[in-house]
Amino acid sequence: MLNKLTYYETGSIDPAFNLALEQALGESELGQALFMLWQNEPAVIIGRHQNAWSEVNLSVLEERGIKLVRRLTGGGAVYHDLGNLNFTFILPCPQGKEPSQKCILRPLLDYFGALGLKVIMEGRNDISLKGCGKISGLAGRRLPGKFLLHGTILYDVNLDVLSEVLLVDPAKYRSKGVQSVRARVCNLREHADISLAELEQGIKLSYPIEPLPLPAQIRDRADELKSRRYANAAWNLGMSPPGDIRLSTRFSFGSVQLNLATTGAVISQARITGDFLTSNAADQLVEVEELAQALIGLPAHDPKTWAAAWSRFDFSRVFFNCADGAEIIAWLSRID
Fold first, then answer.
1. Tens digit of each residue's pLDDT (9 = 90 or more) over 286-300
2. Residues 169 and 43 grouped into a single domain
3. Higher local confidence (pLDDT), 203 or 255
4. In the chain, at which residue ranges do the beta strands (DSSP E only) sit?
5. Quick one: 173 and 51 in the same domain?
6. Per residue in 292-332, pLDDT tens?
7. What is the CATH classification number for the domain harbouring 168?
8. What is the domain extent for residue 151?
9. How many distinct structural domains can be found in the chain?
10. How far apart are CA 276 and CA 265, in angstroms?
């Protein structure tokens, strides 16, 4: 059960600022449980580990003037516009006592139910309308002493633009029993007689919030992070992954791609990308990077040696919801 939540307005529809504000609040000394509802102008927000070149139609983004911003959490790419409502929870989280997502979202789900919507949490990180499709995607991350959970609510998003800018792996469609990203999602407006303003107010009333002005030092820190990271192409695009060898597959916990460069007959560079969520049991970025580094120096065309190098890892500490790392080792061992 959630107690009082401090509620902040971002005062912005700039995706770079709003994601910077999340980080600023997450690293702050503020001891309260925090909650925000916010919107972005048209933007594609990609997961921490994703390869922008393979997940997003970058030429369409440039033509349409749509921004690309990389977030701190894992998961897949999402399209935002002013028909989308986003939420963020930043909650105190003592070591070993991570809050349940279902507990955090219960008031939201109950509110949807009160609107006559039959919603369910399904998959790794989705809220869906029964018989319709996904209306919300979620992602979470452990911070020092805190837990961040954020997500989207598709109210009246331009689904044609969404399907044009997101390049989703066809294997992901097949796993959901549909043929396209457009068929996988739906807008809440089509199923509830409620305005966006009413939806926002209803969600606020569902939680025990105390609205407060955003502290000036937090806004200043967010402006700094925006300039240094979230409005910076080096962060948002990242370096194009090495491409001598590219191997990909989809596991129950998400997609994983190996991007390898070779020098002579050995692997000289390695990067792991995908829409997976990382485990909160350890330093996620270090764990993923260690997996990549374990391949460097190995024979370039001998996946069985890659599997042997990875066999020492506890994959449940790397990938969220990875219950059996043996499937990863088996995949590597089968690669021709």
1. 678 899 999 999 999
2. yes
3. 203
4. 5-8, 34-38, 43-46, 67-70, 78-80, 84-92, 119-122, 126-129, 133-143, 146-154, 209-211, 245-251, 254-263, 266-273
5. yes
6. 999 999 999 899 999 999 999 988 888 888 878 899 999 98
7. 3.30.930.10
8. 5-236
9. 2
10. 30
